[in-house]
Amino acid sequence: MKKLIFLLIILLSPTMLLAEVLYVQVRSTKLRSEPKHWAKPVKELKYGDPVSKKSYSKGWYNVSYGKDSTGFIHESAITKKKVAFSSGSSGKVKAEGSDLVLAGKGFNRDVEKKFASSGKRLDYNTVNQVEQFSVPEEDLAKFIEDGKLSG
């Protein structure tokens, strides 16, 4: 009986040691030192980066990335579905249609074509400008501290 238990432990150990792989589903996100949106960033992760789940609690995944980075990522930035980039015919890198975050929220090529055919002119310059806007981590930390914000 002891041999059977020992054999089961040996056979099952590798599968129990395999961490669940999750993927970043947003353009970029910070791996944070604590499970808080304003916690010190450990590393910046990009769309499609794989992370290994260590644990989950209250909307935050404790994960590891690469050999030496561990921290927390909010559940809104993570998916269990593998996301990947592919090269389009133009040579530019693009996301697979089924993996686009916006498509998951109802905005896809069909919706875009419908807008285009409606005769309405859509100007995405402001959207593009907003997407380029970034607040340095130090400024954000100072804003939170000065405003005595917590959460």
How does this model look, in words?
A five-stranded antiparallel sheet has the order 6-5-4-1-7, with no helix packed on it. A two-stranded antiparallel sheet has the order 2-3. The protein has helices at residues 2-17, 101-104, 109-117, 125-132, 137-146; strands at 21-24, 28-32, 41-46, 50-57, 60-65, 69-74, 78-79, 85-87, 93-95. Strand 8 (85-87) and strand 9 form a beta hairpin. 11% of the residues are buried. The protein has 151 residues and is of the alpha+beta class. The protein has a domain at 20-83 and 121-146: Roll (SH3 type barrels), CATH 2.30.30.40. Residues 87-93 and 96-100 have low confidence and may be disordered. The protein contains five helices and nine strands; from the N terminus they run αβββββββββαααα. The radius of gyration is 21 Å and the shape is flat.
